[in-house]
C-alpha cells in the first residue's frame, strides 16, 4: 500500500503539537542576504577608523586682528586613520587654510589635530591626532579593483556621523581637474551616494580594504561620484609625512594645446599628434634660460612625449627638479632639443598657467 501524504499549514488544528517545530527565531545573520552581510561587515570593521573633521577659521576683521578670539566653524568633512599612531588621510579642500582642526572619533572622543601637509594638486592631505587606542583602517590596492565591484562609502555627510552608502565601481581611470588646475589621474568613479561632508572618507571593498578617498560629485547628475585611488593617496601621504609637501617642477611658461599637422608628424616620426604651444615665457625662468620662445611647440620632456599641458604636468615631478633634462620643441617646422632645469614650484601657484574648466562639486 502506498503511503498517503497530507499537506498541512502551521496553524492546522488537526496537526499535533509534536509535529510543530520548536520556536527558533532566526538570527540577523541568517536573515540578511550576502549583499547585506557584506555591507554590514564592512561598516563594522571600518567605521571605528572613520573620523569627523571640524574646520575652524577666523572670520571678520576683528577676529583677524585679535588672536584671542576663538576660531569660527567653517565646515566639516571626513577622514580615516591609516596608522595606529594617529595619522589621518583626508582631502586637501577640507583642511586647506584652516586655523584650527578638531577631530571626532567614532567612539565620541574629540581631539585637536595638526595639519601635517596638504597637496591641492591631488586633493590629498594628512592631519594627526595624539590619542590612545586608535584603530586604523586596512588599506587595499586600487590597481586590483574591477568595474562592477561592490564598494561602500563611509563618511559624515552634513555632519551625520558614520553614514554608510553602498554601490559599485562604475568606471576606472577617470581624470579630474584639481583646484590648482592640474589633472588627477586614475580616479575611481562610483555610484555610492556622496554628499557634502563625505569628502575625505574611505571608499571600501567588501573585504574591508580602503581603495579610495572620496572627493567629489557631479551636482547636476545622479550617481556620478569620484574617489582618489588609494595608491595615489598613500604615495602623497608618505611624502607629506616626510617632507610636509610634494615637490614639483616649475618651467615658467604659459601655453595651450594645439594639433600637429600630419605631414609634420610623419616627417619627424613624432609619437604624438598634438603638442603644447608656448604663448609666453616668464622672465628669468628656467624656460627663458633654456632658450624657449613664444611660438615654440613642446612635444617632449625628459625623454617622454608631451601631447599637451596635462602630459607636461604629469612629468614635472620631484625627481626632475634641479636636473638638466632634454626639452623637445618644434620651431619653424624643425625639431630642436634644449637642455632645461626645472625649479622647485613651491613659491609658484601654477607652474604652467591654463584656463581651468568648471569643477565638480566637492563632496
Q: Concise description?
A:
This protein is of the alpha+beta class and 363 residues long. It has helices at residues 28-31, 34-46, 60-65, 92-95, 230-243, 262-268, 286-290, 309-315, and strands spanning 50-57, 72-81, 87-90, 100-104, 110-119, 124-128, 138-139, 150-155, 163-177, 183-190, 202-205, 209-217, 225-229, 249-250, 253-259, 274-281, 297-301, 304-305, 324-331, 334-341, 343-344, 352-353, 361-362.
Provide a descriptive summary of the structure in words:
By secondary structure, the protein is an alpha+beta fold. It has helices at about 30, 35-45, 60-65, 90-95, 230-245, 260-270, 285-290, 310-315, and strands at about 50-55, 70-80, 85-90, 100-105, 110-120, 125-130, 140, 150-155, 165-175, 185-190, 200-205, 210-215, 225-230, 250, 255-260, 275-280, 295-300, 305, 325-330, 335-340, 345, 350-355, 360. It contains 8 helices and 23 strands. The longest helix is centred in the middle third of the chain and has 14 residues, at about 230-245. The termini are far apart.
Amino acid at each position: 500500500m502506498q503511503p498517503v501524504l497530507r499537506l498541512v499549514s502551521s496553524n492546522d488544528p488537526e496537526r499535533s503539537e509534536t509535529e510543530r517545530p520548536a520556536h527558533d527565531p532566526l538570527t540577523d545573520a541568517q536573515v540578511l542576504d550576502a549583499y547585506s552581510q557584506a555591507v554590514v561587515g564592512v561598516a563594522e570593521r571600518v567605521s571605528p577608523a572613520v573620523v569627523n573633521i571640524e574646520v575652524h577659521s577666523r572670520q571678520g576683521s576683528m577676529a583677524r586682528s585679535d588672536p584671542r578670539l576663538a576660531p569660527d566653524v567653517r565646515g566639516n568633512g571626513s577622514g580615516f586613520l591609516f596608522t595606529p599612531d594617529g595619522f589621518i588621510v583626508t582631502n586637501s579642500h577640507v583642511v586647506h587654510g584652516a586655523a584650527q582642526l578638531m577631530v571626532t572619533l567614532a567612539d565620541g572622543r574629540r581631539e585637536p589635530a595638526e595639519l601635517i601637509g596638504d597637496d591641492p594638486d591631488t586633493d590629498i592631505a594628512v592631519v594627526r591626532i595624539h590619542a590612545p587606542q586608535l584603530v586604523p583602517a586596512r588599506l587595499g590596492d586600487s590597481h586590483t579593483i574591477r568595474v562592477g565591484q561592490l564598494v561602500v562609502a563611509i563618511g559624515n555627510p552634513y555632519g551625520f556621523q558614520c553614514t554608510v552608502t553602498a554601490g559599485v565601481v562604475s568606471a576606472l581611470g577617470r581624470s579630474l581637474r584639481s583646484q590648482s588646475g592640474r589633472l588627477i589621474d586614475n580616479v575611481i568613479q562610483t555610484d555610492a551616494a556622496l554628499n557634502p561632508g563625505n569628502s575625505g572618507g574611505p571608499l571600501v571593498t567588501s573585504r574591508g580594504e580602503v581603495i579610495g578617498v572620496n572627493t567629489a560629485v557631479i551636482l547636476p547628475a545622479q550617481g556620478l561620484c569620484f574617489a582618489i585611488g588609494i595608491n595615489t593617496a598613500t604615495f602623497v601621504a608618505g611624502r607629506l609625512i616626510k617632507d610636509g609637501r610634494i615637490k614639483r617642477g616649475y618651467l615658467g611658461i604659459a601655453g595651450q594645446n594645439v594639433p600637429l599637422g600630419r605631414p609634420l608628424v610623419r616627417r619627424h616620426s613624432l609619437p604624438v599628434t598634438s603638442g603644447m604651444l608656448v604663448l609666453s615665457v616668464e622672465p628669468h625662468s628656467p624656460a627663458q634660460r633654456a632658450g624657449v620662445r613664444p611660438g615654440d611647440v613642446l612635444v617632449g620632456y625628459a625623454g617622454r612625449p608631451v601631447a599637451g599641458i596635462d602630459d607636461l604636468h604629469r612629468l614635472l615631478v620631484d625627481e626632475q627638479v634641479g636636473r638638466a633634462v632634454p626639452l623637445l620643441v618644434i620651431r619653424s617646422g624643425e625639431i630642436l632639443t634644449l637642455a632645461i632645469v626645472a625649479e622647485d614650484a613651491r613659491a609658484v601657484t601654477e607652474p604652467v598657467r591654463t584656463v581651468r574648466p568648471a569643477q565638480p562639486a566637492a563632496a
